[in-house]
Amino acid sequence: MPTVDIDSVPSVTIIGAGPCGCAFAADLASRGKSVLLYGHPDHRGALPMIEEQDGWLSSSGEITGRFHIQTTSDLYLAIRHSPFIVTTVPSYGQDTILATLSQFDLRNHTLIINVGNFFYLSARQQINAHAILETDISPYATRITGDTVFVKGIKKSLAIWAEPPTTQATRLEAGAEARLRRQVESIFSQKLVWCQNLLQVGLNNINPVVHCPAALMNAGWIEATKGDFYFYAQGMSPAVSRVTEKVDEERLAIARAYGLDLVSITTYMNENYQHDEVFPTYHDFAKGSVIHNKTKSAPSGMHHRYLLEDILYGMVPWYELGLKCGLPSPTIRALIEMASVVSGFDYFEHGRTLAAAGLGEATKEQVLIALGGPVETPNVAASLSEAPVNKMSEVHAPLQRTPVAA
Questions:
Q1: What domains are defined for the chain?
Q2: How much is the pTM?
Q3: Which of 265, 270, 340, 356 has a CA 20 to 30 Å removed from the CA of 350?
Q4: How wide is the angle at C-alpha 327 spanned by C-alphas 391 and 323, nearest 5°?
């Protein structure tokens, strides 16, 4: 008689019907889970495509098949479908979703934000979810082509963090944290690396490092061709790659200032994608990655999410976190200022700032406490299952439950 996993989540609601949401839906359905895909009434994404196929979603590439997906633009129905809600909307759409979710009682719901980009900074005082979790990056490299979601790559692991409870929140009973972790792990097909604070997740999101220098330094080519070139192999030239690596150095310096030991962008790419070789430099990866050069994937204009999302919700909080530690991060600042000129509005003013979260005047130590607490040094006598993660490529860590204090 087969063993039944009592902690496996049978149903999941996905908010956001773009490429990532569709890839997630196909992945979940391929593993036998009931999936409801929500698209905002004004931004329904791929819902019409699925509805035209009588509720069937076609997927190719790393996830191949035809899967039955329930769809809705009624958020009440989406919330009723499952106590586990995964959002895949771009960060610049999160405030809209947050404002809508704040109208519902979510005390019995677990909200998983993918990609988080410091979503908790906005959400921590607005919704009453049982738990809020953030991942560092999308699980899939994916595009929608015609009537099919094409999953060209699946990452091997994701960093994830669960919010600390407020002093008013009901604390989880003994053993419930571990069960929640097992339930969340059953939703993802990737290995989850559990982090002790939000900074580990937010600084481990490599999208701003990858996308922003290449998008800004290829502005002429993007505007002339509407993105008709290979963003990685052609757009990430040796010069662009040097800027990318400099941004990465500044990201890693900020992480170290908060006690975090993160891996470089090149190491991350080698560890999270299946390659025929190990690439020694970032330029070698960009030129030689088969997965990332299956499609051209260059932005079609300069108001693309590679800037609107990755700078507003990635680089801006990185830069401010660095300032708390006395780090000027000149390359990151230069890219933010350049993006502001290109886009015609102030990214520093409109980004996900610490001030907007009530942490503008907070010290470095207060920021750490508000976002989960300092990373603890692993006890050499502890078992692997008990040891906190400091380096993102190592073992899972237990959830940190540090009270919020801004």
A1: 11-194 (3.40.50.720), 206-365 (1.10.1040.10)
A2: 0.82
A3: 265
A4: 100
Q: How far apart are alpha carbons 109 and 132 in whole angstroms?
A: 9
pLDDT digits (tens, 9 = 90+) for 335-366: 999 999 998 989 999 999 998 888 999 999 99
Phi-psi category of 372—alpha, beta or left, where left has phi over 0 and alpha has psi -120 to 50? Answer: left
CA distance 146 to 161: 35
Q: Which residues contact 234 (CB under 8 A, 6 or more apart)?
A: none
> CA-CA distance, 196 to 210, in Å (whole number)?
25
Tokens standing for residue 287: 């030129």
- Average confidence (pLDDT) over 212-223: 97
What 8-state DSSP symbol labels residue 314?
I
What mean pLDDT do residues 142-166 have? Answer: 87
User: What is the Cα–Cα distance from 227 to 214, expressed in whole angstroms?
Assistant: 12
* SS3 state at 286: helix
3-state secondary structure of 228: coil
DSSP assigned state of 267: H
pLDDT at 374: 86
